[in-house]
Specification:
This protein is an alpha+beta fold and 67 residues long. The protein has one domain. It is 37% helix and 12% strand. It has two helices and four strands. Strands 1-2 form a two-stranded antiparallel sheet. A two-stranded parallel ribbon has the order 3-4. Strand 3, helix 1 and strand 4 form a beta-alpha-beta unit.
């Protein structure tokens, strides 16, 4: 874990890139959510949700199921 600085968050050294995750259908969304849960269980707590290739922010569908 590393300290993020001013906000005192402890972040994992490895993050999960979520840009490839999709809500195109229920199966794709379920696979993305399962990957996020597996990352959390493995100690990864940094999710990169930058939407550089998509018009639909992945955080729109991702937030409610994982909270």
């Amino acid at each position: 874990m590393i300290n993020s600085g001013q906000n005192k968050l402890e972040l994992s050294r490895i993050g999960l890139g979520c840009g490839h995750m999709s809500n195109a259908n229920e199966a794709a969304q379920a696979a993305g959510i399962a990957a996020i849960h597996a990352a959390f269980e493995g100690g990864i707590n940094h999710l990169n949700t930058a939407d550089i290739r998509s018009m639909a922010p992945c955080t729109d569908w991702m937030s409610p199921p994982i909270m």
